[in-house]
Write a structure and sequence with these properties.
There is one protein chain. With about 220 residues, this protein is α/β, with parallel strands linked by helices. It has a single domain, classed as Alpha-Beta Barrel (TIM Barrel), CATH 3.20.20. About 55% of the residues lie in helices and about 15% in strands. It contains 11 helices and 8 strands. The chain has an 8-stranded parallel beta barrel, surrounded by 8 helices. The longest helix is centred in the last third of the chain and has 24 residues. The chain starts with a strand and ends with a helix. The model has no long low-confidence stretch (mean pLDDT about 95).
């Protein structure tokens, strides 16, 4: 399972790239506005250091989404155009996909919706696990069911587990068979953490320093 960052903060993305653990970014105008940047400039900047950058349309009608989607895709080859799971969003996504643009269908909450995304030739479908959990549904069960349905039907659309809230969500997404999990920077950092790793590293360093002490005395 590939890991994406769900952020528009360049410094967070750069850190993930430097660690060598992320393969893409999911963002939207809201995240970019929160980061205090111009949409186009920030997307282009992010695309310079990482591939697979989802940029979301904000138009509401099919024709407007097609125009906007083409504009977003023109910013950089790494851009994946994100469209909503609505009739107009899917119609626009189908037209954009037919022109060779990679499409990420967002705001997916069911297997049936995921099948619609696959029907238009979407590159990615994004089920929102955390938001399903918020209304007392099993978000990761839906992710697993989408993965199962796609495999049964030999569908190539990639399943991206979105609305990830905790490290456990990441584990569950991987076990569910998701192709991608997109997560906040704080969750990515938390994946590194385990008390035994910290304790083991501390012990190794202490033991190493002890082996150097006699050499220092001789010197």
């Amino acid at each position: 399972m590939k890991l994406f960052l769900d952020t528009a903060v360049y410094e967070e993305i750069k850190a993930g790239v430097d660690w060598g653990v992320i393969d893409g970014v999911t963002t939207n105008p809201t995240l970019i506005a929160k980061a205090g940047h111009d949409h186009e400039e920030q997307v282009k900047k992010i695309c310079q250091i990482i591939g697979n950058v989802s940029a979301e349309v904000v138009s509401e009608t099919k024709d407007d989404m097609i125009v906007e989607g083409k504009r977003l895709a023109s910013w950089h080859p790494n851009v994946i155009v994100k469209v909503p799971m609505t009739p107009d969003g899917l119609a626009a996504g189908k037209a954009l996909a037919a022109s060779g643009i990679r499409i990420n269908v967002t705001l997916c909450f069911s297997v049936n919706q995921a099948l619609l995304a696959a029907a238009i030739g979407a590159y990615i479908v994004s089920p929102f696990a955390g938001r399903l959990d918020d209304i007392n549904e099993d978000g990761m069960r839906v992710v697993a069911d989408i993965v199962s349905a796609y495999r049964q039907q030999s569908i190539k659309t990639k399943v991206l587990a979105a609305s990830i809230r905790t490290p456990m969500h990441v584990t569950q997404a991987a076990l569910a068979g998701a192709d991608i999990s997109t997560l906040p920077f704080a969750v990515l950092k938390a994946l590194f953490n385990h008390p035994l790793t910290e304790a083991g590293q501390k012990r190794f360093l202490e033991d190493y320093r002890k082996t150097q002490e006699p050499q220092k005395v001789k010197a």
